[in-house]
């Protein structure tokens, strides 16, 4: 039997204080990652996950960071590389802002520009800076959280859809250009999921209904945070050594569906 899939590796995870980031940090620690940097806009959340992964045997560093600011991204890169002694193996760029939906004709400019900063500009800045370091130390894996909405509309969420689609375009360029440096670049695209963000969006009562039955998804259920974390674990591991430039749909079959003929 082979050993842990990420034995001896180091990683940084943005949005590491909850949801997909938290679950990914736990799975990485369970699979042998020795050093994990947890960046989150809420320090207390990052500190709580730091305690979790340290209980699993990893060393961890919690950093409060608003990645919507380029200077904060630069500090995160500097502090991460110092913590891992310059050798970083995995980046999970996962952080995203939360906001309610709005019709396109009334869409607030501040929401549009904030999504551009946090979702897209930070993906570029962190991807480029960490890739520069990886290119000097033998390579690594850079991973992004996108969404099934990178492929299609989510009414009321113009900036979210546009920026997630933008990340896909970015990672494909990165994958092609960085392959010679042994750097793989991929993304995980979650479908409807059972997370705290989803509860914020629809409320606990409606969310409990969705947990029991979610017929929009062919598999009939919401994704768990671990469903997404396991996809990141696979893409970060050597099991995915010939995979780059891909946006992996983890959606229970939603993106396979077009339509059914209406009943008379």
Entry summary:
With 264 residues, the protein is of the alpha/beta class. 44% of the residues lie in helices and 15% in strands. It has one domain: Rossmann fold.
Topology:
Layout: E1 10-14, H1 19-30, E2 35-40, H2 43-55, E3 59-64, H3 70-83, E4 90-93, H4 109-136, E5 140-145, H5 158-178, E6 183-190, H6 196-202, H7 204-212, H8 225-236, E7 247-250
Helix pairs in contact: 1-2, 1-8, 3-4, 4-5, 6-7
Notes on the structure:
There is one protein chain. By secondary structure, the protein is an alpha/beta fold. It has a single domain, classed as NAD(P)-binding Rossmann-like Domain (Rossmann fold, 3-Layer(aba) Sandwich), CATH 3.40.50. Helix content is 44%, strand content 15%. A seven-stranded parallel beta sheet has the order 3-2-1-4-5-6-7, with helices on both faces. Strand 4, helix 4 and strand 5 form a beta-alpha-beta unit. Helix 4 packs parallel to helix 5. It starts with 9 loop residues before the first strand and ends in a 14-residue tail after the last strand. The mean pLDDT is 95.
Instruction: State the share of residues found in helices, binned by percent.
Output: 40-55%
Strand order of the largest sheet: 3-2-1-4-5-6-7
The percentage of residues in β strands lies in: 5-15%
Q: Could you describe the largest sheet, including whether it forms a barrel?
A: 7 strands, parallel
Order of helices and strands: EHEHEHEHEHEHHHE
Count of folded domains: 1
